[in-house]
Design brief:
The chain has about 240 residues and is α/β, with parallel strands linked by helices. The protein has 8 helices and 9 strands. Bound molecules: ligand BV8.
Length: about 240
């Protein structure tokens, strides 16, 4: 982007690392979720068909953790919401996270491409509703009243992520792509940087180098609550 031109269109991608300092576990860190349970047992349609009670219990536990006191947005979530509110150019935040911390921090131009723990989807009427606290006991769908047909509104492995067309449109006009708190292990999200590099500036903000770190023009490593507010301050100063 030539300096002094229009403010760049920004796309931010986040992963579980941005919520780590809010007390939520990541997936692939040593004490992460996939060290406790296997993806094949809890995060695929086949697992749900084979043992729905096990899958529902896995998501019920994470939903309850999210709803209990003490899990709050952190300085990184808040900095992104502030940037969105003040940014004069295009802005889209795409999260892989199923927690609700970006929304609670005030982000509105937000796509939760892997779904949301706080929502459930009815297998009978296909409504997406606010999820009851637990789905394990087969609550009735608030929309159609049929019991025992609600699943987590979460994208499992082998399922198509949500709003991919809207994400593709934003990536096609993106001038600045910033990846925050993601290992770059899961596609298609991990492929976004390859889609934009060469025509957009690309920046990685992560605790440690991700699997795709060499695809970024710049990579900064450290905790999100330090790196994200610092970067937001820089980009706002550059375009004030
Ligand atoms: C699909 C919901 C096709 C569940 C999740 C190539 C192309 C396309 C697909 C594939 C492909 N190759 C393989 C696939 C299949 C698969 C895939 O990618 N597999 C991987 C394992 C190889 N992809 C899929 O199945 C996707 N679907 O492709 O559909 C299709 C086509 C047509 C029709 C139908 C279907 C669906 C993927 C979505 C799966 N669902 N989540 C749940 O949450 O329970 S994915 C899961 O991984 C989470 O969403 C998570 O967000 C995501 C990525 O993980 P990260 O967020 O990056 O978390 P991770 O722990 O890995 O990393 C955390 C990072 O943070 C670390 O780097 C760490 O250093 C850093 N960190 C830690 N602390 C901090 C920090 N950073 C900053 N500050 C800190 N304090």
């Amino acid at each position: 982007m030539a300096p002094g031109a229009r403010p760049p269109n920004i796309v931010v991608l986040t992963g579980a690392g941005i919520s780590r300092e809010s007390g939520l576990h990541t997936f692939r860190d040593p004490e992460g979720i996939w060290a406790q349970v296997r993806i094949e047992d809890v995060a695929t349609p086949e697992a749900f068909a084979r043992d729905p009670a096990c899958v529902q219990a896995f998501y019920d536990a994470r939903r309850m953790q999210l709803r209990n006191a003490g899990v709050e947005p952190n300085a990184a979530h808040r900095a992104l919401a502030e940037l969105e509110a003040r940014w004069p150019g295009g802005f889209l935040l795409v999260t892989q996270n199923v927690d609700d911390l970006h929304g609670r921090a005030g982000s509105r131009r937000l796509i939760a491409m892997h779904g949301e723990l706080a929502k459930a989807r009815c297998l009978t009427c296909h409504a997406v509703v606010v999820s009851p606290d637990t789905l394990a006991d087969g609550p009735a769908c608030p929309a159609c009243g049929v019991p025992g047909r609600l699943r987590p509104h979460v994208v499992w492995f082998g399922e198509m992520p949500l709003e991919m067309e809207r994400i593709g449109e934003a990536l096609s006009v993106c001038d600045l792509f910033v990846s925050i708190g993601t290992s770059g292990a899961v596609y298609p999200a991990a492929g976004f940087v390859a889609e934009v590099r060469g025509r957009a500036e690309t920046l990685e903000l992560n605790l440690e180098p991700s699997e795709g770190t060499r695809l970024f023009d710049e990579a900064r490593h450290g905790p999100a609550t330090r790196l994200v507010p610092q970067w937001v301050g820089e980009v706002m100063a550059r375009w004030r």
